[in-house]
Structures are given as C-alpha cells and as structure tokens.
Fold this sequence. Notes:
Blueprint: H1 2-14, E1 25-33, E2 36-41, E3 46-47, E4 52-56, E5 60-67, E6 71-78, E7 86-89, E8 94-102
Parallel strand pairs: 1-8
Antiparallel strand pairs: 1-4, 2-3, 2-5, 5-7, 6-8
Amino acid sequence: MKELAMVAVLVSLACGSTVSSPGSAATVAVSVQGPGRVLSIPPGIECPRVCTAAFPTGATVTFAAVPADDGAFRDWSGDCAGATGCELSLTGGVTVVARFDAH
C-alpha cells in the first residue's frame, strides 16, 4: 500500500501538480507595477516593501490594491485576473501582479 501511495505522488508530480502535506505552507509572491501597493488579509504582504510571504496551505487570502495619490488601479494578473477583487484559496504557491496607472 505504501508503494502505491508513492507511485501516486510521483505520477502527480510528473503531471505538474503540487503535493502539500497538512500543515504545510504556500508561498505567495506579489509584484506591483505602477504607483500603488498591495496588502493582504490575513496580514503578511505589504508590497512593495514585503512582496513574498508564506501562508498555511488551505488558507484564503484576500488582496487589496491601494493606488498612490497619483495613481489608479488598473487590473490583476497572474493567479488573479480582472479589475475587481482578488481572493485565493491556497493549494500551493501563487503569483499575483497588481497594475496601476499614473494620472
């Protein structure tokens, strides 16, 4: 039975999946393009100062795009998309990009 479980993990990894064990952490990487910043709820990301953080696998993380006084939020890309909110349930590492336009 142990060998079967190992084969399942190896096949999963070969197919590009990630395997997380209970209690493991997922890495969140954020980048900001333009005049603004990104905050996370729960706290951990405050980009452009702190742009990478580890959160528990299975956690839900909400990202807030905060434009600078001379900027306007444009959109998300990466594991978030569009011009509305960004909330992710973490099953593995994610990358989020927030784009802002200058006025």
